[in-house]
Write a structure and sequence with these properties.
The structure is a single chain. The protein is 35% helix and 19% strand. It has helices at 36-39, 58-63, 67-75, 97-113, 127-136, 152-159, 170-173, 200-211, 215-229, and strands at 8-13, 22-29, 43-46, 81-90, 118-124, 142-145, 164-168, 189-191. α6 links the parallel β6 and β7. The two termini are 15 Å apart.
Length: 243
């Protein structure tokens, strides 16, 4: 009898995989043109901090006609929509951090209104502000840090919050993997390619060796993490392997 082969789950990518047996979660920025092809796959959507307006019009909120939030709200009604993101803070690129923080709060507020099970976080050199945000936000869903690159101290602080998950990618592919990643429980980990050109299977291979977990067991574990986070999605519809 043939052994069941679980698909690779690419938790965060900006393009669909050309590999077979891969489930891809596309990341859609609100400032991009969103095609029907994009929304026919599993996707998340949000206003990426890199592309936010330099000055946010407070009048949008007063008139209840914010163009970004209106677009996000409409996308959230698509059947393949998963969660709001990527959203967050970036001190390297984007408008002033105050503008980014304000839009982060607005989008998380919308996530609560639509009962989004998760938010996908982009955080670059702003973990101090993000930790402050996590202490004050009333959002009750999962908070997934995509392409996570925090240090050991930040990781230990984030692990104190049971809502936090870690999606790993580029750090697994660039030389020695940080040893403190072993502190992260497997049931709080996802793997991703983001906008890189290496295959998701390579990311899994690197993490499999690091964690001493057989590749097939890792694939099963990551997929189960996903199913627990998004129990209302029929995963069979997005893979050529029936589970």
């Amino acid at each position: 009898m043939k052994t069941k082969e679980y698909p690779f789950l690419d938790f965060h990518s900006h393009s669909l995989s050309t590999e077979s047996n891969v489930i891809t979660v596309l990341s859609v920025d609100l400032n991009s043109i969103v095609s029907e092809e994009t929304t026919s796959s599993l996707f998340c959507a949000g206003a990426h901090p890199w592309f936010l307006p330099e000055i946010y019009e407070e009048s949008y909120q007063e008139k209840n006609d914010d163009p970004l939030l209106d677009k996000l709200s409409k996308l959230s009604n698509k059947p393949h929509f998963l969660a709001i993101g990527e959203i967050g803070l970036d001190r390297i690129r984007g408008p002033q951090i105050e503008v980014q923080y304000h839009l982060l709060e607005l989008q998380v507020s919308l996530a609560m209104q639509i009962n989004s099970p998760a938010i996908i976080i982009h955080c670059v050199r702003a973990f101090d502000l993000m930790l402050r945000f996590l202490k004050t936000t009333p959002f009750q869903g999962a908070i997934v840090f995509h392409d996570y690159r925090g240090n050991k101290q930040i990781t230990e602080k984030l692990l104190q919050n049971p809502q936090v998950f870690f999606s790993l990618g580029s750090t697994l592919m660039k030389g020695q993997i940080p040893s403190f990643y072993s502190l992260i429980p497997l049931d709080r980990i996802f793997l991703e390619t983001d906008d890189e050109d290496y295959p998701i299977s390579a990311v899994y291979s690197h993490f499999s060796k690091f964690s001493n977990l057989p590749l097939e067991e890792l694939r099963k574990k990551i997929l189960n993490n996903f199913i627990k986070l998004f129990p209302n999605k029929e995963i069979n519809a997005y893979s050529n392997t029936q589970l």
